[in-house]
Model the fold of this input.
Amino acid sequence: MSYTPFFIEAVIWLFPIIFMFHVLEEIITVDSFMAKFKNKVPRSFLAKLALNVKKMLGANSSQFSIAVTWILLIITFITFKTAFHIPMGDNFLLFIAALNIFFLQAFSHIGQTFILRVYTPGVITAFVIVIPYSLLTYSCLFELGLIDGHLLFKSIPFSMVMVPIFLIGNLLGRRYNL
Done:
């Protein structure tokens, strides 16, 4: 399939929108999920770890919403910068770094679901939207020659640096929780 510059620009602009659909599932379901598991003691170390991660990332929807707002601002800025500088490959570095995190965190939802053996917030959109969008985006960018293996590899350290920057949103959520 041959992709046009307009198509890839639309795919790039979909990033914050896809992100919002994914986190809306989490925001809507996190309160009931945390209430359900509040007093349950997980059987395994992995289940306990999964629940602790969920608590750490925002135990309620208002905390999580603040964290999501922070991340959305960063993703929107990166998307804006990338969409307006499409012909230049280096401008895709931050976009690919953020996309890497988004893509990989979808698998954390899937892993938590298998570990806990119950529905976990975000798993449906991880399967239905995040993974297909990410694969489509990687495919389009590679096919158009906008990224290559070298740029993808180069984006990995940037992804690792972005994780703590994104987690600042969780600190803000705890600090300014209403």
